[in-house]
Design a protein that fits this description.
432 residues, mainly beta, Jelly Rolls, Laminin, OB fold (Dihydrolipoamide Acetyltransferase, E2P), 3 domains, eight-stranded antiparallel sheet, five-stranded antiparallel sheet, 23 strands, disordered N terminus, neurogenesis, secreted
């Protein structure tokens, strides 16, 4: 019995020792700020000194000398720099400027400046420039450029630093292209720059010595959600049909709970009646005279008219309810976004707001369960964060043939076609 117990006990102690030795977690298993070790980075050079760069006593380089005036190093990845060492064939140049850049070709940001050394022969043959201490002074770079204050024969250049893992990894394959961090804290990506799909309950943030900012697991409901992943920014889980809520934990408007785990919310049977009165019934009301901005359901969607809209969506009306005396709240399912507004509209189920007066006067005629092309304006929107559909816009019963020309207009907008075409007035007008 003891011969079996001893190997098992040793294995458990070994696993426990590995768990507690993880620099990214404290002995209690709580996440903490961690960094990979400093290493010699790729991109250094070593070159023999040309004879023409040699200095004779009391003499400068010959007129035919071919010496370096600047040097650019590609580190083949994003790194946190700790030091740069330059070794020259002879006493170094009178002055040095070291610049860094994140992308090829710059923009370059001066990092270290070395003023001219006293004396006619310039500076020492070896110079080491070190990154200043402190987290705020960290230097992140992909490219380095060294500019000499005069011609210099450079023998070698060495760069030391660590992978940029944003405080979420203690190990890194620095020689990989690109460098890959061994991410902890439920992060992922070459530099641990995002959360795993199953841990997006809170937006990703880099770790700091004061707070490790680990990625938190999604709190998606096991029955109401389609899976365990959620949105990187909002934490919104992907809900099943008829289910709503950040974690998909309740039935939406127009749905009730069922006993089926595959479809936990089912639609409440209701008569398909319009949400607004008919134009004939509302025309007798004096307050509705000349109230609606549109009088027909036909509109010619040119590029100019498309660009004048605050948004262009294809949506299905699922349910509605009164939200006070002035507004009616709709539950709509956004099926396609053809023109995005300033406050972005996401696909899926969300709320939309319609003024009660606009429905009563017949400016908008909406039916539950029907797909519409929604053309919206920001004219009557009291809250930019809300999706508002009012008399300044249009709700047209959807026609499948509209999809292709709308996508073409969307492509023209992406190519800059809407520049200078926005209307000075926010209200769209119908065309015949």
């Amino acid at each position: 019995g003891s011969s079996v117990t001893m190997p098992v006990t040793f294995a458990l102690l070994l696993l426990l020792g590995q768990a507690t030795s993880d620099p990214c977690y404290d002995p209690g298993g709580q996440p903490r700020f961690c960094l990979p070790p400093v290493t010699q980075l790729a991109g250094g050079i070593a070159a023999p000194c040309p004879q023409a760069c040699g200095l004779s006593p009391g003499m400068g380089p010959g007129s035919g000398a071919i010496c370096n005036g600047s040097l650019t190093l590609d580190l083949d990845g994003l790194f946190l720099l700790t030091s740069v060492t330059l070794r020259f064939c002879t006493p170094g140049p009178p002055a040095l400027v070291l610049s860094t850049a994140w992308a090829t070709g710059g923009p370059w940001r001066p990092l270290w400046r070395r003023a001219a050394w006293p004396g006619a022969l310039g500076g020492p043959e070896k110079v080491t420039l070190r990154s200043p201490p402190g987290p705020k002074a960290r230097v992140v770079a992909r490219h380095l450029r060294v500019e000499f204050g005069g011609r210099a024969g450079l023998a070698a250049a060495g760069v030391r630093g660590r992978c940029q893992c944003h405080g979420h990894a203690a190990r890194c394959a620095a020689r990989s292209r690109p460098p890959r961090c061994r991410c902890r804290h439920h992060t992922t990506g070459p530099g641990c720059e995002s959360c795993r799909p199953s841990h997006r309950d809170w937006p990703w943030r880099p770790a700091t010595p004061q707070h490790p900012h680990p990625c938190l697991p999604c709190q998606c409901h096991p029955i109401g959600a389609t899976g365990g992943t959620c949105n990187q920014t909002s934490g919104q889980c992907s809900c099943k049909l008829g289910v709503t809520g950040l974690t998909c934990n309740r039935c939406g408007l127009g749905y009730q709970q069922s006993r089926s785990p595959r479809m936990p919310c089912q639609r409440i049977p209701e008569a398909t009646t319009p949400l607004a009165t008919t134009p004939g019934a509302s025309s007798s009301d004096p307050q509705c005279q000349n109230y609606c901005n549109t009088s027909d359901t036909k509109v010619h969607m040119s590029l100019r008219r498309y660009c004048q809209q605050d948004y262009v969506l294809r949506a299905q009306v699922l349910a509605s309810e009164a939200a006070g005396p002035a507004w009616r709240r709709l539950v709509v399912r956004i099926l396609a976004v053809y023109r995005q507004r300033a406050q972005q509209v996401r696909r899926g189920d969300q709320d939309a707001w319609v003024p009660s007066a606009d429905l009563a006067c017949g400016c908008l005629r909406l039916h539950n369960g029907t797909d519409y092309l929604l053309l919206g304006s920001a004219a009557g929107d009291p809250d930019p964060a809300r999706l508002v559909l009012d008399r300044h816009g249009l709700a047209l019963p959807w026609r499948p043939r509209w999809a292709r020309p709308l996508r073409r207009l969307q492509q023209e907008e992406s190519a800059g076609g809407c520049r200078g075409l926005k209307s000075p007035t926010p209200s769209p007008r119908a065309g015949h």
